[in-house]
Amino acid sequence: MTTKLEKILLARIREANRNWDLFQEGEKLLVGVSGGKDSLSLLTLLSRFPVELHAVHVQLNSELPVHFLDYCKKYARIHLVKTDIHEKAFAPDAGKNPCFICMRLRRKTVVSFAVKNGFNKIFFGHHKNDVVETFLLNQIYGREISTMLPKQPLFDGQFHICRPMYMIPAPLLKTYAGEQKVPVAPETCPAAEHSRRNRIREWLNDLQEFNPRIDVVDNIFSSLKRINRPFIPVFPDTQDLTEIRKPKYKNH
Questions:
Q1: Distance CA 123, CA 106 (A)
Q2: Could you give the CA distance from residue 145 to residue 123 in angstroms, rounded to a whole number?
Q3: What is the pLDDT at residue 245?
Q4: What value does the mean pLDDT take over residues 31-51?
Q5: How many Å separate Cα 42 from the centre of its chain?
Q6: What is the arithmetic mean of pLDDT over 156-165?
Q7: pTM for the complete prediction?
Q8: β-bridge mates for residue 57, sequence order
Q9: Residue 194: exposed, middle, or buried by beta-carbon count in 10 A (0-12, 13-18, 19+)?
Q10: Rounded to an integer, what distance in angstroms lies between the CA atom of residue 8 and that of residue 81?
Q11: Which of 110, 106, 104 lies closest to 56, judged by CA?
């Protein structure tokens, strides 16, 4: 039985689909599942649409549990890709922070799997809070104005990353995961608590606590739709990165 909350979330996904043409009826979709509440909730929600679902999980090492794949089997055909990404990310000579290495290798693995198996779209469970956090991360650490896109082209548009939950706030997904009894895998990464993204998330939570009359995340998200160009300064060395770089991931 469809709950009131699920109806709200499905309506947001339908709106995102109308805005950005993410998927069509009868289409074969590949969903990346990590075992977290967001990706498992996305798989559950997409199962309410008339599409053919496939779920791919990148196992970072053989010791990590994958019990949540039994839950995924109710909705999708399962693909498990075993890797040694955890070992590479925390190698003494890795050179960069483990979160960056892990993210890059996981995404590369999923994209390679998709290309080899005839999928031209991958669906990820990123939500409104992720968009805002990435926006701030790219400003603070990347020194640019950008964030993740709802439909992100790769390979000159031959391939796309799709984010149907782009307009859904994280708290609703947390409630939904509990409502649906989603078997969320525990966080096992030793670096997660001290990541840049987690620091930004904590800062936003503190900002919200001190500003209870407004929705901080929603206001920042809404600012992406209100660009006041006359009040954006143009410096002698201003760069339009559109012409410098091809569209790609920038998700720290």
A1: 14
A2: 24
A3: 61
A4: 97
A5: 10
A6: 93
A7: 0.91
A8: 80
A9: exposed
A10: 33
A11: 110
Rounded CA-CA distance 84/60 in Å is 6
| Amino acid identity for residue 20 in this structure | W
Amino acid (one-letter) located at 26? G
Q: What is the dihedral of CA 71, 73, 79, 80, to 10 degrees?
A: 40
What average pLDDT does the chain have? 91
153 pairs with which residues across the strands? 160
Q: State the Cα angle at 58 between 94 and 131, rounded to 5°.
A: 80
Secondary structure (H, E, C), 90-132: CCCCCCCCHHHHHHHHHHHHHHHHHHHCCCCEEECCCCHHHHH
Place of tokens 């201003």: 238
Tell me the per-residue pLDDT of 94-126, one tens digit each, with 9 for 90 and over: 666 787 888 889 999 999 999 999 999 999 999
For residue 106, count other CB atoms closer than 10 A to its CB. Answer: 18
Residues ≥6 apart with Cβ < 8 Å to 127: 38, 163, 165, 166, 168, 169, 170, 173
Q: Around Cβ 22, how many Cβ atoms within 10 Å?
A: 20
**169-192: burial string, b at 16+ Cβ within 10 Å, e else:** bbebbeebbeebebebbeeeeeee
What pLDDT, on the 0 to 100 scale, is given for residue 244? 64
Token pair in block for residue 145: 């104005």
**Distance between CA atoms of 126 and 150, rounded to whole angstroms?**
9
User: How many CA atoms lie less than 13 Å away from 163 in the CB half-sphere?
Assistant: 20
Distance CA 91, CA 87 (A): 6
